[in-house]
Amino acid sequence: MDWKDYEIYITRHFRRLFPSASIRHNVKRIGLISGASRQIDILIEQRIAGFDLTIVVDCKYFNKNVDITTVESFLGFLRDLKASKGVLITNRGYSEAAEKRASQDSQDIDLRVIDFNDLEEFQNFIAIPYQHADGAIVSAPPGWIIDDTTVPGRFLASLYPAGLSREEAFHTEGFMYVNIWNRHLLEPTVEDLLGIQREKLEQTDENVRIEIIPTIERDDCRCVLRMTQTANLDKAKTIELTLFLEWPDVVIFVVLLTSGDKLSLYREKLEWVGQKLVKVKMVLNSAGLPIDSKLIY
How many CA atoms lie within 13 A of 241 on its CB side? Predict the structure, then answer.
């Protein structure tokens, strides 16, 4: 396989992954910052719940690992094109520093560095769960996917490690889910939610342990992280972490269920999701289905 076959194979993979999207190979666009013509290996464009998603894929056919310099150059490339997401695929692997630089970048860009050999495991990594007119653009952390299947009464979307089914992740590995409380309907504060949930937990386990622990900070909303352990959870060696993001009109929360030995690692995944999450307002039709969305800054 030469570099042309390499790019064509990857293009076909993304066409299978995003069958309803516009996917073009070898595209040129004018950079919005530089004003220069920029060549894009693969451009993916799709409208999801009224939100225009642009994914730029760069195919590196190298004789060495992708390093941090390559990642930083690609981040600048994404910003110049105002891309929503970026995917950098390499046939030779990548350094630990390159992966860390990609996953720890600022909130406005989500960049993945993927080994070509792992491409078949690359699945959906963005969804827009919503409840009435309130929604969020939610990205899966590196190594995880997001499943936008809603389970009524339980959650609006779920996240789990790539390569596993939702049930496998729930029973054997880390598992997250997303819910939204519309404050204009129910008017709960985070303290109200904590109180309601504590009361329910204490009805089944009077020895429940609940702790508020330090977490991320955001300029646009208040963030609260709660850790919960009950006798029932202890039997399964499971810990629950809930990250609440509170705005004046809505509370969006992400719940993580994981074993104690993976708590530190998966807590980082949870907080990554909370840092990258973008609040949106949905425009609904008469049937309550989304026809457009508006970013909330």
Answer: 26
CA-CA distances (angstroms) from residue 287 to 13, 127, 193, 256? Answer: 35, 21, 29, 32
Q: For residue 5, how many other CB atoms are within 10 A of its CB?
A: 10
Sorted by sequence, the CB contacts under 8 Å of residue 100 that are 6+ apart come out as none
- Name the strand (E) or helix (H) holding 180: strand 175-182
CATH code, residues 126-295: 3.40.1000.10
pLDDT in tens, 154-212: 899 999 987 778 888 887 788 999 999 887 665 667 777 777 777 777 776 667 788 89
pTM exceeds 0.85? no
| One CATH from 1.10.1040.10, 1.10.10.10, 3.40.640.10, 3.40.1350.10 for 3-121 | 3.40.1350.10
